[in-house]
Design a protein that fits this description.
Layout lengths: L1 H16 L9 E3 L6 E16 L5 H16 L4 E8 L6 E8 L2 H9 L1 H10 L8 E10 L3
Antiparallel strand pairs: 1-2, 2-4, 2-5, 3-4
Length: 141
């Protein structure tokens, strides 16, 4: 289980770091018309849902607190927060917001990010569920 979780987390890091920034000239078709509205990429968000072993929650919170504090100091990080499910206290979600793909890449390159996976390998109950979202703003013309 330990190896499987680490491999999955490592694979997620590789996949996330391989994403390239999207073009800022993408077009979106406005529903019900042939008008095209340019969409400007304005940031990146990542969510990572984790289930922690009930007897390891305190250990996880120590490691996670360090990750949150250091990540929030990164120049490209807009916000990096950890939330605990009030109805299932071993379920957590990291919600991360970055100014762009290069900020995400810089985050993935930090020593503390690289060390995070091995630190939580024995603490997680199952592999993390990670989503990467490109945040876009519509520019009406």
């Amino acid at each position: 289980m330990k190896t499987k979780s680490f491999i999955l987390l490592f694979a997620a890091v590789i996949i996330m770091s391989s994403f390239e920034s999207r073009s800022t000239t993408d077009k979106k078709l406005v529903a019900g018309s042939s008008i095209q509205t340019p969409v400007v990429a304005s940031g990146m968000m990542i969510t990572a849902k984790l289930k922690i072993k009930p007897d390891k929650i305190k250990d996880f919170l120590i490691v996670a607190k360090e990750m949150v504090e250091k990540s929030n100091k990164e120049s490209g990080c807009k916000s990096y927060e950890l939330y605990q499910d009030p109805y299932n206290n071993n379920s957590f979600i990291f919600v991360e917001e970055y100014k762009d793909q290069s900020a995400v890449d810089a985050h993935f390159a930090t020593d503390y990010f690289k060390a995070f996976g091995p630190k939580i390998t024995d603490l997680v109950q199952e592999p993390a569920k990670i989503k990467i979202i490109t945040v876009a703003n519509e520019v009406m013309k």
